[in-house]
Amino acid sequence: xxxxxxxxxxxxxxxxxxxxxxxxxxxxxxxxxxxxxxxxxxxxxxxxxxxxxxxxxxxxxxxxxxxxxxxxxxxxxxxxxxxxxxxxxxxxxxxxxxxxxxxxxxxxxxxxxx
Length: 114
Prior knowledge:
Elements: E1 4-7, E2 10-12, E3 18-24, E4 33-39, E5 46-52, E6 55-58, E7 66-71, E8 76-81, E9 90-98, E10 101-104, E11 108-112
Parallel strand pairs: 2-11
Antiparallel strand pairs: 1-3, 3-8, 4-5, 4-9, 5-6, 7-8, 9-10, 9-11
């Protein structure tokens, strides 16, 4: 069983930055594919990017502006978001997957507005 807790959301002006954190409980953290998703109200959840054993992938909308890192010792994964746009406004979710099981955090709201 894995529990995920996100933090770091908030409101920021266009062009600003935010850093989201996701703290994971449980064991075998380094063996999990850790991902960030986001969801706008009324729309389906969208993958932002993932990290697994040194490989990191990003969606087209995130590439070049967002950066995912993880600290396996602290069992945390981070999403650094730069050059934020109003279209980045969403609830951001942390996701963990391993051996056919997946887990979600509760989400953290990011609002980009002037």
